[in-house]
Design goal:
Layout: H1 6-27, H2 33-40, H3 47-50, H4 54-78, H5 83-95, H6 98-101, H7 109-112, H8 114-118, H9 125-141, H10 148-164, H11 170-183
């Protein structure tokens, strides 16, 4: 089998990072390299041609996940009337939904990766990217009446609890209660 072109190698690398970003949010960073490469449609041996280590991939996949979150915030701001308040409301509506609860792979990296990042060394790039992404998300959520950290903690905590209790009636109750706490007029 011949060598792949530089363009194909870049495309393969991007595919692995996108796949890892989804799998890590869905299953955690403990996903094995073989499983990850299979999900990307590539061979296990190709991994080490693209990445120095699994930790390097975790760094890139974490950055990818937070870039996607930032893009969603930007898109919400650019859509329609209502400005920042409307964008925040749209994001809260989507975040505290059953669809988001049930789709961790495409969902919030702050919630999905929290458990893994708690175990990471503070010196790792993934940990730095995670902390910066959480800060940016909190800043976006801030209003005159509510600070962004409190709002983010409410959303993230509700999502984690809703996912953990998915098959019980309390799961949707948690989502509704958090939504009401964040959107009722103050």
């Amino acid at each position: 089998m011949g060598r792949v072109s530089q363009a194909q190698a870049r495309e393969n690398r991007e595919r692995v990072v996108r796949t890892a970003s989804r799998l890590f949010r869905e299953q955690g960073t403990h996903v094995g390299v073989a499983e990850l490469m299979q999900a990307a449609g590539l061979t296990h041996g190709g991994f080490y041609k693209q990445f120095a280590s699994k930790e390097a991939l975790i760094d890139e996949a974490t950055a990818q996940a937070f870039e996607e979150l930032a893009e969603r915030r930007t898109a919400a701001l650019e859509q329609g009337a209502g400005g920042r308040a409307a964008a925040q409301r749209a994001l809260i509506d989507a975040y505290l939904s059953v669809e988001h609860r049930d789709n961790a792979a495409e969902g919030c990296p702050a919630a999905a990766l929290a458990h893994d990042m708690a175990r990471e060394s503070g010196g790792r790039e993934a940990h730095r990217v995670y902390a910066e992404g959480v800060g940016d998300f909190a800043e976006f959520l801030a209003t005159e009446d509510q600070d962004g950290i409190t709002r983010l903690c409410t959303m993230l905590g509700a999502l984690v609890l809703a996912r953990a209790t998915k098959d019980a009636p309390i799961s949707e109750e948690v989502l509704r209660a958090a939504h009401a706490a964040l959107t009722e007029a103050r």
